[in-house]
Amino acid sequence: MSLRFALLAALLEGDASGYELSKVFDVSSAHFWSGTPQQLYRELDRLERDGLVDVEVVPQERRPTKKVLSLNEAGRAALRAYASAPARAQAIRSDLMVKVQAADVADIDDLLATVTQQADEFRAKLRLFERVRERMLDGRDEETYLRESDRVGPFLTLERGLAFERENLAWSERVIAVLTARRAR
Amino acid sequence: MSLRFALLAALLEGDASGYELSKVFDVSSAHFWSGTPQQLYRELDRLERDGLVDVEVVPQERRPTKKVLSLNEAGRAALRAYASAPARAQAIRSDLMVKVQAADVADIDDLLATVTQQADEFRAKLRLFERVRERMLDGRDEETYLRESDRVGPFLTLERGLAFERENLAWSERVIAVLTARRAR
DNA sequence: ATATTCATGTAACAAGTTACATGATTAG
DNA sequence: CTAATCATGTAACTTGTTACATGAATAT
């Protein structure tokens, strides 16, 4: 159910096509919710059907015609109601952690390769988020930004995303150190 | 697909009934994967059908009869293969973060109540994980434990769980501070 | 008395994934 | 010349959620 509101929340940042939204929600760049393009297109159809977004078909010169979505008053009201209602408990589901949980029966070299590769992804995501943060702050310091900006939501979630990737990276490096020491025994 | 291996990994810690596993995978106590009892029972049936676990029906005196599951050689081999294969990218999906992303259209008092309530849950989970950690270490320091224990997986994932809840809590408090300052304007 | 715990399950539904398709354009 | 990008979609499938049911035992 949250995908729908994640999409509406993304549209607060401005009108966007399904394709553009699919970039925002891509696993490799998402910082508060992710979904595949197929999931988005299905949900966007429903948002249109339910009258929560306005759709404008925009023909382009040397690109396929796109549908640009914008949040309308009904959508804004639905998002407001959702954001004001209690949150559900945070479900932890990490494929990498399941593998580490099973570290003691795994092939250590294979697992080390996996963790190393994931660490690279965490590093890339961290760098990406840091660049987005710089662009958001635009020279101002954090406190000035929070005082002056009319929107704090995207900044706050980005901070959480940054901390998450930093922890992922630090933990990966710890796992690598421990497994390497184990292998040596 | 990971639920299946999360269950097998949980069985590395010893035989367990579906009911006991449903406690381990409960959102409020899980630290690497979560699932509802209904999901587990369905998957446990499949694990049995696929011959990855042995099932012993244990009648009890003043309790309903239970099925105790144990990892067999086929299950151990399947888990080993899974743990040695590459991990899929970490998908971020947080209901709370979607709400904070939409903070600027939400009712601030309602959102503050939500974040405060979530902070309480993070605190409870943090305390729970800290107790589990103490029990695991059993007086030894971390390095001694990692050197002596025959299993490091559960300790490593617990460390990640602890860091995650610590970050959740710190971020919640930050969000509360920012939203409170906003409300005052 | 009432709620919670133990222990399992069925049924219906919603959400998420994977594979595939189209067809033009631009970057390496 | 091949791969990636733009832009959307269909179909089939797997996972995850919600609501409900059973029935005894114990805790408040």
Describe this structure in words.
- Two copies of one chain form a homodimer.
- With 185 residues, chain A is mainly α.
- The first copy, chain A, folds into two domains: 83 residues, Arc Repressor Mutant, subunit A, CATH 1.10.10; 90 residues.
- In chain A, 63% of the residues lie in helices and 8% in strands.
- Chain A is built from eight helices and three strands; from the N terminus they run αβααββααααα.
- Chain A has a three-stranded antiparallel β-sheet with strand order 1-3-2.
- In chain A, β2 and β3 form a beta hairpin.
- In chain A, α2 packs across α3 and α6 packs antiparallel against α8.
- The mean pLDDT of chain A is 94.
- The structure holds a DNA duplex (28 and 28 nucleotides).
Given as residue ranges, the uncertain stretches of chain A (5+ residues, pLDDT < 50) are none
Radius of gyration of chain A, rounded? 20 Å
In percent terms, what proportion of residues of chain A is strand?
A: 5-15%
Residue-averaged pLDDT of chain A: 94
How far apart are the first and last residues' alpha carbons of chain A, in Å?
49 Å
Oligomer: homodimer
